[in-house]
Amino acid sequence: QSYCHRLQHDMYFLTSTSRLNEQVVDKIVLQLNRVYPQILTNEEAEKFRNPKASLPTRLSDLLKHLQKKGDRHCQEFYRALQINAEQLFNDLPSRKILKTPDPTEIDTDKEQYMLNDRGPVFFLACFSVAAGLALFWYCCNSEAQVIGRARRILGFSPIIIGRHVRSICMLYLEDMSRN
């Protein structure tokens, strides 16, 4: 978006409810008059600094004048506004539009962590379920030799699984060996 279109979009915001006071407008006009290359001539600067005209009228005339001159002049106005009234510059409607991301654009930072946002507890829970299913499948094998080995492993694993879970598994293995 060109600076002239942005300035046209911001014109109402800048001229309404006296957002810019007279001192800031004078500083902007002086900066535009003294910047290299000179944006405003001495006569134009005096015209836009004339205290006989009301501030909204002078500001509106200045913005229209800059739009007629071209994109470079509008860009210099935005630079002067940023230097002299940074908070107002950040609150401009055209700046808010520029800050909002394109909804069709993919955010690579979000995409990178999308699969990894569950944390270590989720990983441990999934791993425990997988280990439990593997142990269940191993213990459900009909060979008695396998059940004996599983009983030995479960008997020596009080650290790995809790005492209550171990006793339930041992009861299940004993019940399986009787059948």
UniProtKB/TrEMBL annotation:
Which positions fall inside the CARD domain? 38-96
Q: Name the GO terms of the biological process aspect.
A: regulation of apoptotic process
Kindly list the places in or outside the cell where this protein is found, as annotated in its UniProt entry. Answer: Endoplasmic reticulum membrane; Mitochondrion membrane
Say yes or no: keyword Hydrolase present: no
Membrane topology reported for the UniProt record: Single-pass membrane protein
Which Pfam families has this protein been placed in? CARD
> What keywords does the record list, in alphabetical order?
Disulfide bond, Endoplasmic reticulum, Membrane, Mitochondrion, Transmembrane, Transmembrane helix
Where are the membrane-spanning stretches?
A: 121-141
Where is it chiefly localized? endoplasmic reticulum
**Transmembrane helix keyword on record:** yes
Cellular component (GO) terms are:
endoplasmic reticulum membrane; mitochondrial membrane
Q: How does it assemble?
A: Associates with BCL10 by CARD-CARD interaction.
Q: What is this protein called?
A: Caspase recruitment domain-containing protein 19
UniProt organism field: Motacilla alba
Q: Which gene is the coding source of this polypeptide chain?
A: Card19
